[in-house]
Amino acid sequence: MEKEDIIGRLNELRASSRELDIPEAERTALMDQVAAFANTFINGLDNVKGFRTKAIGDLSIQGYKIPLQELLTRYRAEVAETGINAASPKHLGYIPGGGVFTAALADLLAAVTNPFASVHFASPGAATIENEVIAWLRSVFGFPDDAVGCLSSGGSISTLIAFTAARDKHKVKNERIPKSVVYLSEQVHHSTQKALRIIGLEDAILRYIPLDAEHRIIPAELDRAIEQDRSDGLHPFLVVASAGTTDTGTVDPIDAIADVAAKHGLWYHVDAAYGGFFILTSKKNLFKGIERADSLIIDPHKGLFLPYGVGAVLIKDSAAVLHSHYYTANYMQDGHNEELLKSPANLSPELTKHFRGLRVWLPLQLHGIAPFKACLEEKLLLVQYFRMKLGTLGFHTGPEPDLSVSYFWYPFASRADDLNKRLMEEIHKDGAVFLSSSVINGRFVIRMAILAFRTKKETIDEAVEMIQRCLDRVVQATGDAA
């Protein structure tokens, strides 16, 4: 094209392209509409169901303009009011997330300013905030100052980062893979097995260690298994413990397992994605020895009640992490000489990522730590209260929980599993409060997972009332009671 043609075409495109850079008056009007939606949504959480099913309407992208108010109406009907209401106090099913409002403000700021937080050279302030969050986590869990870490999208990616470092540290590759052994519990989160498969260790040996009556790894059995595998010419290299299992809220004997791992020179990984922040509560004694782990994962979007999408990993061996994740290219040469550990990108598979650190840093700065501790302590008491209330209805409950997850079932006279499944179906149909199910020791059970920061005593009372009326329906329909 000729110069004049290019200039003419640029002038034609300017009017349309500048629509993406909205004037202040329009920005204010849009933010007012979103703020009104947010306030209405939050104010109504106590009065809506925890779970709803409906057919989803048209959410396709048509390519033409639609007013924001219409889109918000559609969002409410098709997204906010369907499935599990994850912001609700009535989400007691899977491990709840949070939705602390000040984290949403942080996400707004992060999206508007859009710093490239992965690389210190590109945004030293944003990278420093991410690193300060990691420094705070090190202090909470007693990790040394030279331990490294980064913020991820959640426990699955955190596990991936930790296991890759463990694999490379212990040189588990090629013909050594089928002889390498990972020790774990049948209660471990499935992201453990998934991460091993993703990083090429699908053919490694997974050794499930026997558990005690409270679903905890038995350290003596772990020690025995490692000794046997070594004598059989195998290569033990990784042991995985849980500080709060998803099914039962159990904390493995962390310190005793650390003794075994140290004795045999294994990489010791602790999955504290759900339960880790309970170290800030009266349950701190359960976490003794967690500082001895080689790697640790925790999810601020669980125990700090933040929106989904922020997990964290801490790793003591920085050289192992850099070996796995550090790489450079010609187009990154301007930042090549910075300190490697200042840039989160060097410790993670991600280069471009959301500025997650702000959604942790801002709420902690605004609120301090005290209300977070209070919420966690409250959840510990609520699970005790829930179990007591269920006992008065004739339900059986699992072992005394370590944290805020437990399970229960009704002792129907016959076909107990089938009728508890039917009870679960009735609970989901009712939807007032969302609960989930599992199978533990071969028995179908209903789970309670109390972690949402908005969940209070009134929520548990509502849940118990719902369970009672659903139980009544099953008994009336089948004639089968306890």
Please give a structural write-up.
- With about 475 residues, this protein is an alpha/beta fold.
- The chain has two domains: about 110-365, Aspartate Aminotransferase, domain 2 (3-Layer(aba) Sandwich); about 370-480, Alpha-Beta Complex (Aspartate Aminotransferase, domain 1).
- Helix content is about 45%, strand content about 10%.
- It is built from 15 helices and 13 strands.
- Strand 12 and strand 13 form a beta hairpin.
- The chain is globular.
- The N and C termini lie far apart (about 85 Å).
- The relative contact order is 0.13.
Topology overview:
Blueprint: H1 3-17, H2 24-43, E1 51-52, H3 68-80, E2 83-84, H4 101-113, H5 124-141, E3 148-152, H6 155-169, E4 180-184, H7 191-198, E5 205-208, H8 219-231, E6 235-242, H9 254-264, E7 267-272, E8 295-298, H10 300-303, E9 311-315, H11 318-325, H12 357-367, H13 370-392, E10 396-397, E11 405-409, H14 416-430, E12 436-440, E13 443-449, H15 457-478
Parallel strand pairs: 4-5, 4-6, 6-7, 7-8
Antiparallel strand pairs: 1-2, 3-9, 8-9, 10-11, 11-13, 12-13
Helix pairs in contact: 2-3, 4-12, 5-12, 6-7, 6-11, 8-9, 13-15, 14-15
Task: Name the descriptors.
2 domains, 7-stranded mixed β-sheet, Aspartate Aminotransferase, domain 2, Aspartate Aminotransferase, domain 1, 4-stranded antiparallel β-sheet, 482 residues, 43% helix, alpha/beta
- Could you say which structural class the secondary elements and strand pairing correspond to? alpha/beta
Tell me about the largest β-sheet: 7 strands, mixed
Beta strands, count: 13
CATH architecture of the largest domain: 3-Layer(aba) Sandwich
Number of helices: 15
The CATH class designation of the largest domain is Alpha Beta
Q: Identify the CATH homologous superfamily of the largest domain.
A: Type I PLP-dependent aspartate aminotransferase-like (Major domain)
Strand content: 5-15%
Report helical residue fraction.
40-55%
Order of helices and strands: HHEHEHHEHEHEHEHEEHEHHHEEHEEH
Low-confidence stretches are 329-335
Please, how many domains? 2
Neighbour order of strands in the largest sheet: 3-9-8-7-6-4-5
Q: Can you tell me the CATH topology of the largest domain?
A: Aspartate Aminotransferase, domain 2
